[in-house]
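Exercise: predict the fold of this chain.
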Amino acid sequence: MTEKSSLQTLISLRNITREVITRSNNTRRLLNDVSWQLRLGQRVGVLSKSMQEAHALLDCAAGVATPQEGNVTIQANVSWPLGAKGGLSSSLSGRQQAKFLQSIYGVGGQQLRELQWIERLAGLKENYFEKPLRKYNKQMRDRFHLAVALAFEFDVYIVPQQFAWKSNTTSETLLELNQALKDRTSGKSVLMTNSDFNFLEQFCDEGLVLHKGSIVYTGSFSDCRAWYEANISKAPEEDNDLQLESDEEVPTTELESDILGDDLW
């Protein structure tokens, strides 16, 4: 990578502020005047006590959430937050959903191959690829959303905690999804978060620590992890009172707390 290319800015956040309404009807500021840039080749893990704050940063960077203040500039082909459940119709079949997305993001002339890949990676029961998503149980829907997110190539991959399994898993299905994520993001820029820092370390060589809505530390991933564990890890949980207003249009990652569980596989 040349020095010039390594300085190319793909995503720029400038003085962004993101607020939501808590269940006690108070306004909570998830991001507070945040400025940051993702450059070509960077693979950055976001470490935060609050997954809501981390996901707010990822959602703004992906362009699926609009901050109340500030500007986001995207100069690359950026993925949606991988595994997010928004934007698909529950009345359409898995094949129809995948076919629609392939027509937008896929490779011309490769529709059949890419649809077969999605069906296999999702591990759907027999004939479920032809059934509407409303017929899927939660586990099948989660696997489908992860598989379809990994089917297409982007310059930047945004990876929220929907990819939340233990880093030492022995599950064959999880290992296959994990390998698919590694293959798809190889050589690409990455912005991701997870409460399992060992999982983040598999993909990220840089980090940033997000605390109380502000970026408080940046550097190598190992330095950020050490700083977080020394200064932040024992702080109280911050997401207990968070609930968005039902009529607010926000990314799925901010609305849902049903992260993949150990019983999914």
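Check your answer against the key: The CA atoms of residues 46 and 193 lie 5 Å apart.
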